[in-house]
Specification:
By secondary structure, the protein is of the alpha+beta class. Helix content is 19%, strand content 33%. Strands 3, 4, 5, 6, 7, 8, 9, 10 and 13 form a nine-stranded antiparallel beta sheet that branches. Strands 1-2 form a two-stranded antiparallel sheet. Strands 11-12 form a two-stranded antiparallel ribbon. A hairpin with a 6-residue loop joins strand 7 and strand 8 (169-174).
């Protein structure tokens, strides 16, 4: 399975991978074969990983079939409690049908080492096509060292910004149906955000943002795991 490791501002170009985003977007992508990517100063940023086509089109449809009846009863909101998300609706689920349970178990098997205590509830975040997620670090009150999400319906650009050196910026291309993982340094030392549609460029190529649903698994924080 290929890994997408992606644009670091003002760094040299790497070999592009072919992909399903179109020829121009394929030329924009950059590939690494490890879970490290270099920021603009050439310092390694560990713990960010993207796996292209982690789920199939059929698996995406199955997830949507289970989620849509729940999401369509909710309105999009624009005043998140910590002002991090605009144009969203969300839910948490502990019960999934058998087919989708197998997909989520695959996420957990890839993202979390054996024995790591995980949150039983899966977070589902539905972002309107005009919505966006501002730069933030997820609260340690709600999750531990690893965040793993499947991207449904739309590709997008995730931006990581160093908390210590705000000029250190890494852009990640998240293709539709990929799995992204943020752990350790990428989780704690960098903010992450999903760019607005009008700002959604990767290496100068427009990545059109549509409605985007992320299905997110997390592990427990150390305090809550005891």
């Amino acid at each position: 399975m290929r890994f997408w490791f992606l644009r670091c501002l003002n760094t040299p170009c790497f070999t592009a991978l072919p992909c399903k985003l179109g020829e121009a977007a394929a030329r924009a992508a950059r590939s690494f074969t490890s879970t490290q990517t270099a920021n603009r100063r050439g310092i390694a940023v560990s713990g960010a990983e993207i796996r292209e086509d982690f789920i199939s089109e059929e698996e995406e449809r199955a997830l949507l079939e289970e989620l849509e009846p729940v999401l369509k009863r909710k309105r999009y909101e624009y005043d998140h409690w910590d002002d991090a998300i605009h144009g969203y609706r969300e839910t948490e689920r502990s019960q999934w049908n058998e087919k989708n349970s197998r997909v989520l178990q695959r996420v957990r098997d890839v993202a979390f080492p054996p024995g790591v205590k995980q949150l039983h509830l899966v977070h589902v975040l539905d972002l309107h096509r005009k919505g966006y997620i501002k730069a933030h670090v997820d609260s340690v009150k709600f999750c531990g060292s690893t965040i793993a999400g499947i991207c449904l319906l739309s590709s997008s650009v995730m931006r990581l910004i160093s908390k210590k050196i705000p000029t250190d910026v890494v852009d990640l291309l998240l293709p539709r149906r990929c799995l992204y993982i943020l752990r350790d340094e990428a989780r704690y030392s960098y903010t992450h955000e999903i760019l607005k549609d009008e700002e959604s460029y990767f290496n100068g190529v427009k990545i059109n943002r549509d409605r985007r649903i992320s299905v997110i698994c997390r592990n427990l924080s150390e305090d809550n795991a005891e």
